[in-house]
Amino acid sequence: MHPILKPALRRGWHDLNTVQFGLTPAHAVVLGPVDTATGSFLTLLDGTRGVPLLRDEAQRMGLPEGHVDALLERLTRAGLLDDATGGGPAAEALRKQTGVMDRLRADHAALTVTTSEPAEGARRLAARHGMRVQVRGAGRVGALVASVLGAAGVGHVEVRDGGCVEPWDVAPGGHPVEAIGERRDVSARQLVRAVAPARPPRPDRRRTQAPAVDEGQGEPALSLVILTPRDGLAIHSPDPGAAADLIAAGIPHLYAGVTEATGIVGPLVLPGGTACAHCLLLARTDRYVTWPRLLAQWRSGHSARQIQACDLGLATAVAGLAAAHGLAFLDGELPSSTGSRWEASTPGLDWHARPVWPHPECPCGAGEGGNGKETSVEEGPHDTMAV
Q: DSSP secondary structure string, 200-221?
């Protein structure tokens, strides 16, 4: 182990014996009392020395025997210590790719802030390289989500969509002007390749694994699917059939998109564990008997053939939030979109969460055992403004 105080956490001394690591309340830690000699010793925790050498340095500084080990344990418990050489073979291989690591250095720093164990940030960053994510939908939101995931180190990012790039699909970080007329999925895949820090790892064709939806031979199983439909209705009222294969295969999936002037991120569906699109549909039908009739009109009406409203700033915010939630899940966390939909409407842009509860009658199984007796907190026909 080569201990290093997490560089991403800025340091400041309250007084001669109290030091604060980090700025924000979510991550700041105040350490004290810290005597003068120990304060000087902290400057040696820069990742260039192993523990035996640090013990020797402490002895030369006059610190008592055992002080280094106690201090390192104290810093580890506080989540302030990283290991410049840890994280396992995959993390070590990543460090040796200097150009790749330089691209991901800011992401690694962020992971060190949100993890407590030494080298856990490096381990999670390296793990992303072997993961496979599929993005279904390559409009303004989907193309940007895919490029962010690829740039953040996810090794396999697939994009699926039909049709060609239209002028209104163009967006910073997404489809460029030059892609107008090209197939959407082809353009989005080119975006991912252009921003990826490294090529995807070669598949291990000797490895056996659980089957995944449309899985190619030797490819890793899908870790996550992000559904980013270009049709606003498909994000406001997702068709359960669009994710039926994911429910059947037990593949986690996240919804994100823009409908009219509202951005939506979520729910993140854990099949059999949290509410799915069918749960949402059943809950709305319970509350509003006219819901199926409205859906039929919305899906077949004249408005379905119009250009979809998609404010560029809102679409960019939705894509960024969706990618962040997806990365948090890939890194082993459960983001707040798990079982909830985050929504914001222009021009106010007040993000708020609407929980989506498992429905007891949904075949997905998340509502079994009485877990889904509460109804979704959702807007409906009777909550709209009457004139």
A: PPPP-TT------TTPPTTPPP
